[in-house]
Amino acid sequence: MRRIISTKPSSNVVICAAGGGKTTHIVREALANPAQRVAILTYTDNNIQGIRKCVVEENKVPAAYIEVLSWFTFLLRELTRPYQNVLYSKRVKGIHWVAGRSDKYATADNIGRYYFGNSDLIYSDKIARFACACNEASGGRVFARLRERFDRIYIDEIQDMAGWDLELLEAMMRAGINLTLVGDHRQPTFRTNYAGKNSGYGGYKIIKKFREWEKRGLCTVDYQTHTHRCNQAITDFADALYAAEPKTESHNKEETKHDGVFHIRLEDVAGYIETWRPQVLRYDKTSKCAGLPAMNFGISKGMTFDRVMIFPNKVMGTWLRTGEDKHIDGSRAKIYVAVTRARYSVVFVHADPPGLKGIVKYPA
């Protein structure tokens, strides 16, 4: 009898719908085997605090075998400093944060200038590339050390990764480092850097990179197509923003006296707020919200509210009126985030009859 050997990749990408409980999924999986040494990485400080809180809630106490780190702390501590001397003699003291692209005229063979500006701080948009270069120059020791440090590395909000981050992750998978990458490419409201590398895979298009990895046998790609947060009416409306994606099933079966997606005239806003107490959301600080305190769409990411009221900007107003998606090509992700914050109801402050399906006038 021939022995069948599994060739299934040891790394995986998990796409979770908004409200699907991806942080809980990561933490429970990490806690399931205390014998494993695990790192959980994410980009923003808010996500770090959320993961640490979830670990304590699930485990009652912090788990010593789980390290929760920011992406850049991981890059600096685990991938840059241990073998930096193979390329650069000055100790790397920290990160030089770059809003756009650093020194566009330096070449990679000029190590000091290209990566550091001849200082002891490494450019944030090039640190992932430096990690790759260190691993190559050291004969693979960077990744060999990482395999000894962690049995599995989880990365939350994988859609935030950009530039050389994607090259680094691919190199790690090829080196046999076990990765679980979790996120939702429909919610790319942040990005780790603006390097030119992999610019064709930015934002929503990062799913193409995942599919390429899957085709090369580096990882599997799986969807979790359920939400515990939004009711089905809200879920269907959000799904329509990305019609090509798998449909999402709501596990929120609770019914209230006001459920679904609505539009409302400005003069009815005060009465609506008095009755239903929604969280007011806006695209950004330039959006007019009738003087009401409001939260930007991007800031609301990861949060849950019973009800939200959305003040559309001009572009969204045109989209609501015409029903034509072309008007929101640059803001689709943020709209998806805003709509999927709500458990029971979403209301757009928009008087005109909407050209979109699934929106009901309030009051009827």
Structural notes for this entry:
By secondary structure, this protein is α/β, with parallel strands linked by helices. The chain folds into two domains: 12-224, Rossmann fold; 237-361, 3-Layer(aba) Sandwich (Rossmann fold), CATH 3.40.50. It contains twelve helices and 16 strands. It has helices spanning 22-31, 45-59, 71-80, 111-116, 127-137, 141-149, 164-174, 206-215, 232-239, 269-276, 314-322, 332-339; strands spanning 11-16, 38-42, 66-70, 94-96, 121-123, 152-156, 179-183, 219-224, 226-227, 249-250, 260-264, 279-282, 295-296, 305-311, 342-349, 360-362. Strands 3-2-6-7-1-8 form a six-stranded parallel beta sheet, sandwiched between helices. It has a six-stranded parallel beta sheet with strand order 13-12-14-15-11-16. Helix 2 links the parallel strand 2 (38-42) and strand 3. Helix 3 packs parallel to helix 5 (127-137). The longest helix has 15 residues, at 45-59.
Task: Output the CATH topology of the largest domain.
Answer: Rossmann fold
Radius of gyration: 23 Å
* Low-pLDDT segments: 1-5
Q: How far is the N terminus from the C terminus?
A: 70 Å
Tell me the β content.
Answer: 15-25%
Question: What's the architecture of the largest domain in CATH terms?
Answer: 3-Layer(aba) Sandwich
Instruction: Note the main sheet.
Output: 6 strands, parallel
Biggest sheet: strand arrangement: 3-2-6-7-1-8
What is the CATH C level class of the largest domain, in words? Alpha Beta
Order of helices and strands: EHEHEHEHEHHEHEHEEHEEHEEEHHEE
Number of domains: 2
CATH-defined superfamily of the largest domain: P-loop containing nucleotide triphosphate hydrolases
Number of beta strands: 16
Strand pairing plus helix content: what structural class? alpha/beta
Instruction: Note the total helix count.
Output: 12
What's the rounded overall pLDDT mean? Answer: 94
Shape, please?
Answer: globular
Q: Percentage of helical residues?
A: 25-40%
